[in-house]
Amino acid sequence: MDTNDAFQLHLQKLPPQDEKTFETIYTLGNGHFGVRASNPLQGNNSHFNGQPGLFVNGFYDLTQLSYGENYSGYAQNSQTICQLPDLRFIIFELDGIRSDETPYNVKLVDKNLDMRTGVLMEIFDIKSPTNKLFRLTLQSFASHADKHLFVIKYSVSALNFTGALTVIKQHPYINQQIQSRTDDMRASRPETALDRTFIKSKLPIMLISTRKSQLALIVAQQALKDNPMQVGMIDDLPCHNKTFDLTQGMSQSFSFVYAISYPHPLLKTTLSQSSFAASAEKRLANKSFKQLLDESAAKIGEFWDNSDVELTGDTALAKDIRFNLFHLYQAAGNDGLTSIPAKGLTGSGYEGHYFWDAEMFMLPFFIYTEPAIARQLLLYRYHTLPQAQRRAREMGVKNGVMFPWRTINGEESSSYYPAGTAQVHINADIAYAIDTYVRVTGDEDFLYDYGYEIIVKTARFWLSYGHWGKDIAHKGKFVIDDVTGPDEYTAMVSNNYFTNRMAQNNLSIAVKYSNQLKHSHAEKLVTLNVTDEEIAQFNQAADEMYLPYDDQKKIKMQDDLSTSKPVWPIKETPRNQFPLLLHFHPMTIYHYQVNKQADTVMTDFLFPKDQDAAQLKRDFDYYEAITVHDSSLSRAIFGILAHRLHHADDAYGYFMQTVMMDLSNSQGNTSDGIHAANMGSSWLSLIYGFAGMGLEKDSFNLSPELPEAWSSLRFRIWFHGRQIEITITQTAVTVKLLSGNPIKFYLKHKAFKLTKEQLVNHFLK
Ligand code: BGC
């Protein structure tokens, strides 16, 4: 294997991990689906202990949530992404013994992911119960040219024998068995049961249906024309099969393409299953492995052209960064009907749910580098507005919408409301993301057609959910009670700083865009019933938003009562008692000042102009001391702020922990899936952190400063239809306009004009 290149992720060069962690790390995906890189002989054989499976974005089943005390408005169903049969699964037969009936010995020899082409190459040595040894080499990829396709090539070569080897490519099971852990609520998942039928066709075409959500998925299988294979029936199931005459030392290859297609429920299509099956079959165009690969690799090439971050001075780190970016690309839904699950499409952790993770931690990467994908991700929220409106009414909120804390289909799926539904900040997070998208892309059509409606309806939520304060402390102020901020170790409080500041922003941008559209597209305001009176109410609530502040400590207070509680004895707590959520009752934790993750300081990060350096330092020091980072969404934010405070070592340390989180399995649960928000945070740390990117009116500012260990950092962004390349070294920054019209931008807040003819080269030191 050629593994020297900067885009190769070679097993031998990674820190050692358990099998399931590597299955996650090497998962292949394309936003539509993900396939874990498991032992291809496992299937449902309990002899092996991997966690194989196919995850299709948005394809879930429902399981009824059971509560001892089932209060009104509690989420009634959990949506769980289905762990579908492993497409890599294969059956061998040697000397009349089938590998799915009597386990063969499977030894992983090597793996390498080429992130430039998306091809995963794997080598396994397999021994039959009769001691015949052969080598299986797999080459597989999830197509980025046609997102429905998964392609896999198997090569077998006999190592100690000459003789017949039969290959059977079928899925005798439909419910992919997994060994789920039940002691970790982040991993635990209700079992879902799937049904299967085969559609009459020349090919094995499975129709997989869920019992409760009543979704149906088509998986069509075809042998590629490079090495045709016949379709037959074995055990009453259609399959491809062939017997090869192997000569010791000679290898034989055969390859398959899978088309995975389903009518997404948000699509509300009237097409029948058979037409979906027909379209899946049509997708299996008669192409060779190489043709399919070339098409897909070309798409990935475009991704790298837009999104690569080239770091020099630390080759290993440069590759680790690419690993994070590649996984983000592999995870992002791009059909307007799906988003990015917290674990990407690499595992069943968090049941495949979408959280604020997508908008706040991952979306910025796409907004700046792949704006078309960012648009699709935001469209997903637009398509779930009806559910969010119903939920608001169900929760007694008279106006506006209330987005779910965790969901797949747009409905609330959180069973523990204090750390779930109560995180109403998600509404403002979505609005913030839309504002960023519009400011960076200038996509006025999106604003008009979709974004503005979400911003107005979430602003209405705040007016309904909050109220005007009456007691002395809050008189004349707009207050928001009974919420949980990002820090899930503090719940159901009044005036969570982050929530109130984000709500304030939501209300302000509703005013900004209402005033803007009033002039250009007044009819939009009429359609949405936005009146001058309502705009004035948004404005007043934003102006008078209550933001708790501790006058003695001179810090932003996490909520009305936060600083009066005792501090959790973090240093005295043994390491094995973390994460606290797995060892202490929530109320025990709520009793103390202890933060699971960045909360109040998220506002320092998101609104850099809110505070001066002295305020930032006080907030940072205070909250860093009480934060345990039990969430993977935490360290990067502290790292970016450390950078802004010129604490170079801390910034670098936090960054390294962020980038390496999944490769080093530092949270201990990468086996359940990647930490996708943290991967997005790797990009945030580089661009918002070390490059110091910030938004200005119709422009952007850069305040770069590299860690000493790096020689240079180069990346590209799209800004209002222009592509711009930025190269930062220890001493200078060079900004080039690759396409589009001239633009004024800022370097350390000094204005520069950038044209195609005239790049900007500026010395930093
Ligand atoms: C964090 C949340 C996050 C969720 C999914 C939780 O542990 O506290 O902020 O949204 O994980 O990643």
Automatic annotation (TrEMBL):
Keywords: Glycosyltransferase, Transferase. Transmembrane segments: none annotated. The keyword Transferase applies. Coiled coil: none annotated. Residues 13-227 form the Glycoside hydrolase family 65 N-terminal domain. Residues 322-683 form the Glycoside hydrolase family 65 central catalytic domain. Residues 697-752 form the Glycoside hydrolase family 65 C-terminal domain. The active site is at E488. GO terms for biological process: carbohydrate metabolic process. Substrate binds at W356, D357, K596, Q597. GO terms for molecular function: carbohydrate binding; glycosyltransferase activity; hydrolase activity, hydrolyzing O-glycosyl compounds. Belongs to the glycosyl hydrolase 65 family. This is Maltose phosphorylase. It comes from Secundilactobacillus pentosiphilus. The gene is mapA.
